[in-house]
Amino acid sequence: MKLINIADEGAGYKAQLYELYDNAFPEQEKKPLHVMEQLVNDGKMEMLAMVDEDEFVGLAINMISGDRVLLDYYAIAPEKRSCGYGSKGLEVLLAHFENQKYIFEIETQDEKAENAEERRRRKAFYLRNGLKETGLSANVYHTDFEILTPDGELSFQEYVDFLREVLDEEYVQMLRPTLISER
């Protein structure tokens, strides 16, 4: 599997990436495409098509600032799910960003949530594939997130500083990052 940036050599996968993005995430979690395209133009975001033998299998959209990266969106095409592409894609991403601080946000575990089982499976997937808990939880745009990284290290201040470096202050104020817990 390889990662192809749709801003350059991967332009042929752009429509598939946008369609998967549109269908895979709830409306309230999606950034407007024009905002993401501007971040790409500013060098603060990468939209990567995950491709296996020239066949589109998923997407990874990352926000980037210096030596820090945040996985903003990750999805496998519905017809490719349960075929190992999620784990393989994550392996390729971790290798691609191995010399950078890679940040992952996942919804906190909440047995009362409508998608409690999905949250449990998602966290188990990430932990099984090499990520570690940081002990950091934050509320961002009315959603409680647990933060994972490959080394299990990140402070709330580093997290907020990263958001400020990538997004303009007005957008960060809209997100309202609030610390829930930190070890």
Detail the poorly predicted runs: none
CA distance, first residue to last residue: 36 Å
User: How many helical stretches?
Assistant: 6
Largest β-sheet summary:
8 strands, mixed
Mean pLDDT over the full residue set: 93
Strand residues, percent: 25-35%
Query: Structural class given helices, strands, pairing?
Result: alpha+beta
Q: Per the principal axes of the C-alpha atoms, what is the gross shape?
A: globular
What is the C-alpha radius of gyration, as a whole number of Å? 16 Å
How are the SSEs ordered, and which strands pair?
Blueprint: E1 2-5, H1 14-24, H2 33-41, E2 45-52, E3 55-65, E4 68-76, H3 85-96, E5 101-107, H4 116-128, E6 132-140, E7 143-149, H5 156-166, H6 169-175, E8 178-181
Parallel strand pairs: 4-5
Antiparallel strand pairs: 1-2, 2-3, 3-4, 5-7, 6-7, 6-8
